[in-house]
Amino acid sequence: MLVEGYKRDRNHPKIEIRDIRQDSPRLIDDPTVIAVAANGAVENAGVPVFDRDDIAGLADFVVAWAELKR
Asked: How large is the C-alpha radius of gyration of the chain?
């Protein structure tokens, strides 16, 4: 199941959506972040980083990640 929101919840895996042009709070220190989707380079992410428009790449990642969790 995919849900939007719950960024402060520490019980659900998350994909952080980042607009690098804005100085928004980042979730990258949250251990439940499993990937980042951004509109530019993300330094030292520590998790896979995808272009925000890479729908196929993100979908493949989610499917592979979910299969590993079975």
From this structure: 12
